[in-house]
Each structure stands twice: as C-alpha cells, then as structure tokens.
Amino acid sequence: MDINNLWSLRLGFSTVEADKIKDLGFSKYLKRSLRAHTEVREPQFISNSPQTLSELKEHKKGKTRKELNKELAMTAIQWRSWLVQQCYESKNPIQEKLNLFWQNHFVVTYQKVKMPYWIYQHYQTINDYSLGNYKELVKQVIQTNAMIKYLDNSKNVRGNLNENLARELLELFTLGEGHYTEDDIKNTAKSLAGLNHGKDHAQYRKHQEDNSSKTIFGETGNFKLDQVIDLIFKQPNTTYFITRKVLKWFIYDNPPEALVQEYGDILRQNHFELKPFFEILFTKEYTKQTAGSQIKDPLTFTIQLLKGVQINNPNYTFMALFLMTQSMDLYNQPNVKGWIGGKDWLTSQIYIHRQQLVDFVLYEKNSPMARRLVNRVKKIDGTDVVFTPQLEFNKQANTQEIILDLTNKMVFEVDDNMQLELDNILLYDFNAQASNANQSVLNVYRYLARSAEFQII
C-alpha cells in the first residue's frame, strides 16, 4: 500500500486525502489538519428535544410509554445516521476520527441516557476539546449531563455514595487498573457527591455535596471535581494510559510498550496539550513501515469501500444499521469499556457480513443481511437503498498498472497467490476501451475488497 493512502486511512476513513498528503507533504498536511476546527451545528431532528429534566417531564405529559419509546428509537437511528454522515462528509477527517476515539474513551450510551440533547452535548464537548488540553478535556466531559446520567452520579449524595463515576474516572478514563486504591475511589466518590444534572452541564447541589476532608493519592483537602482531576494528572500512568489507547486506535492493535513510554513522556512534557502530542506521534510513526499492524474498524471499512467507488450520496441510515451488525453501534457501546477493537473487529460473522456488503454495493447482490437492512430502512424512512458504483481508472494504463494502482489503495501487501488471482481476473490482453472494461476493473475491486488483506491497515 502506498504510504499516503495508508495515512489517509489512519487519520481518516478512506484514501481520499492521499493526494493532499502527497502534494503538501505529510508534515504540512498534518499541521493544517490539526489546526483546522469544524464547529458542530445542532442537528435539526433534536431541535425540539427536551434539554433539561423539567422539560423532559413536560414533554412526557399526555404520551404513553409506547409512544415515548418509539420517539426515542427513531431519534436514536437519526442520531447514528447523522454521526455516520459527519464522518463521511467531513472536510477534515482527522477531527472526526479523533471525535470517535474520544467518544469511545469517554463512553456514554444513548440507550442509558435517553436524552438526545444530552448525547449531542457530549459529542459537542468532545468536538470542542478534542485537540485542546487533555486535562481540560477530562474535566469538561466528566461534567456533561450525559456522563452524570450514564454513570449514575445523580445518585451519589452525601451519606449515600454511588462510586460508579469515581471508579470509571480512575480506572477507564485516566489511570487504568492498579494505579489507585479502593480508598482513592471512595474519597473521589465523596468529592463527586452532589455533582448532578444542570442546564448546560453538571453542577453541585449544596444539600447533596460532601464538604468533609478527603485523602486522595496521599493528599488531603475538601476536594471537588477539578481538584480531583488535578491530583489524577500528577500520577505517572495518566499519560501512558491514554497514549496506549491512542496508538491502538490509530496504528497498532498491540502497541509496543517502548512507544507507549516514549509518547507518554512527550504528552507530559507538553503539559497535556494534545496538538503537539499528536503532531510528534504521527510524524514519527509516518516514517516507519507499519502497514498491516491493525485490523480495520467497521466504519473505516465501510467508508473506504463506498468512497472507493465514488458513492457520493450513500444512505446513511443503511450504513448506521450495517455498523450495528459489525458490533460498532455508535453511541451504544456494549459497556463502559467501549469497543475493544483488534480481533473483535473481525469475527467470522463480521467478515461474512463485510463480504456480503461488498457484493450488495457493487452488484446489488442480495443476502439475508442486506435484505434485512434494506427492509429496516424502508420501515424507518421509506427510502430505497441503491448504490451506483463507478470506478475511475486510467484508460491508457496497461493491466499491471491498473492492478498496481488498486492494490496500492486497498491492501497492505500482495503476495504471489494474490497476484496470480488478480492476473486471472484482469487478463494481460485486457482492453481498456472495450464495452465491458469498467465491469472487469470492478471485478478486481470486488476481489480486493473481499480479501483478508483489505481488512487490515
């Protein structure tokens, strides 16, 4: 695979950015991408959604549970579809790739929160702080109403503690297991007691908060959220924990510990500023031969497949539903640990569904999976799912040049057996001007997209 195609995939969801990387040079492209910022516009479908608990109470009046559940279910699929659209149409793919990373790090689920506007606020907060200061990002996300709801901190009050948010703040959001004590958790829970839902973000309620003295990581005081997070960020493993997850999300399914240490130290030396951290990390990794070190996540697989055959207006509802079959249900991870990735992205069933999607997109070949999703889309919004694939190729190129161009975009390596198969699909006497030329090249695309190598970057 060409290195610019590889890094277009790593920093986004397709190879569309490869020409920009080549023309600008990787360093300049990366700097521009990290300094660009896209503001999020509130999607129309949540414009009338309740924004506070009092508005929710008013909204429920006169409606049955069945009506409310149907409304929530419809907004849930609209939300998933909108997120897919954000990734597909983004002019700065690295921002959406980062947003998705942070969403999976600071997990909240639509199913538990059941407040579409709060889910949107969580996404908006991530979008606003995803390339700022890591410590500030943690502070802001923990205070979202969605996080308070998801991890039950509204039930965490003085004299009747709920440790869910405190535990996950230490274990899954900042430090990792083994880098805190049970007393640290209990005292963190005391510090977070009374932090409850607010209008725009969580706020302390005086009659619920705990103003006693607490000892966390050996320091004593009447700590609140900001002070707790300041204490956490003094701990050595804070930077290593997040660096390991960054390396896994973008490059390695099994990050080398030496790199975790190296880049973790860089994050701390930069006072938790994320732009210089990402710039240094990606620039250094760009110079290495790392293709084939990661199994492709379902969203990257799907977007790369569709953009590769110039699908400009895909059915985003269909795509969102397909991701659910791939165990990548957006804003509905299986638990607070989020998607694990790696081999979890390529079970035998997931691989079969990926191959069936390839055939459906390229040839409208139905499978039980495709029919089921198409029928669901019709029930949801009444639309048909139709793809019109078009594959551009150089009509002056010979067979081997066409094959080389496609393999450079699609697979991390080509062994002798694959080359032999490709030569049998696009024969040496292939005529680019023939009436069936497009179909012949599309057959090459199908073979590559169904291959095991296409699942890996």
Written description of the protein model:
Among the domains are: 1-31, no CATH class; 298-381, no CATH class; 399-455, no CATH class. Helix 2 packs across helix 3 (26-35), helix 11 (164-174) crosses helix 12 (182-192) and helix 18 (316-325) crosses helix 20. It contains 23 helices and four strands. The strands form two sheets. The chain has a two-stranded antiparallel ribbon with strand order 1-2. A two-stranded antiparallel sheet has the order 3-4. By secondary structure, it is mainly alpha-helical. 57% of the residues lie in helices and 2% in strands. It has helices at 3-10, 18-24, 26-35, 53-60, 65-89, 93-105, 110-113, 116-129, 134-142, 145-150, 164-174, 182-192, 225-232, 237-250, 257-269, 274-286, 298-308, 316-325, 348-363, 368-381, 399-410, 416-425, 437-450, and strands spanning 195-196, 203-204, 214-216, 219-221. The protein is globular. A hairpin with a 6-residue loop joins strand 1 (195-196) and strand 2. The longest helix is centred in the N-terminal third of the chain and has 25 residues, at 65-89.
